[in-house]
Amino acid sequence: MIERAAPHHLVSDQGLGIHRMLIIAICIAGVVGLTQTSISHISSFIDKMAEQAMAQELRALWETPSRAITLVALDLTPRQEIEVQQYLLQQEYAVDLVERGHPDLLAVEQHVTKQGIVSMSTAIEVGRVRGAHIVLEVSAVGEGLTVRSIGMESFEVLAASFVTEKQQLRHALSNIVQSALALLPLRAYIVEQSGMFALSAGSRHGVHTGDFFQVQDSEIQLEVLTVEKNLSMCQLRHLEDYAIVTGMDSIPVYRFMNMQ
Question: Is pTM beyond 0.85 here?
Answer without folding.
Answer: no
